[in-house]
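Structure tokens please, single chain.
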Amino acid sequence: MRGGARHGIRMMLLDALRHHDGIAHLETLRALGVPTPAADAAVRSGLVFRPRRNWVATSAADLELLTAVSAGGRVGCVTQARRLGLWVPDAPELHLSIPRHSGHARPPAEAVVHWRGREWGRGHNTADPLDTVLRDVADCLSLEAALCILDSALNKKLIGLAELERILLATRRGARLLPLLDPAAESGLETIVRCRLLLAGILVRSQIPIDGIGRVDLLVGERLIIECDGRAHHDDPLARARDRHRDLLLNARGYLVIRLDIAQIRGDWMLTLAVIRDLIARGQHLWSAAGLRSGG
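Here you go.
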């Protein structure tokens, strides 16, 4: 092979790997037009390396995918949910999906491993498909964390409600999760608060439109609005200013607005719940208690 052709094949190899996060199986590369001898030559020259038999990677390969392939498996569960852009609570552990029949699996000690049996599919993917991810999330994580991810998948329209119901009914906790799902939820914090209120026996609705103002995160009864602010709102002065303006307009209309931040939701929930319960006990969630008609 002449120098120009050899250079072209190497560039094709690097381009193929770049489109696969820096790591791919030899069969994947062959399908993209990179012959195995060219990949072998690139390994010998030090341009790329083999993390595992029949796999090729660059030094810039995605670390999570590289770890999964080196261990003989794929990225899965909450790790892949995060990689798909779903709203994921803090979950530092790497979750891997590995076949039981693999005689050379070497998962790192700190990884959470989902061992697979006959359901392990053929192919050379570096991550589990969405249905497997959501099935694992349902049974692996806490009820609250799982619900955040499931709501997020629905809200982003990565999956339909009917299909998600089919997946969840095959899981251990699916029957408990199904009544709590809400495709309207736009953030995990909103899901957390809604879930906790529902489990406390408080009826709450998500993403309710208010004429002339827009949608509010949660509405309890007729007039008690709960807004859930994440770190992005906390760190953005313009967002905070817009929120305060909205709150003024809502208060002028007779609504009662509670704005919760991460600390009040995650660290001081018992006090937060006690305040909400007290407001409900005094009827402050109803227009009649405030001496107002609907919408002021």
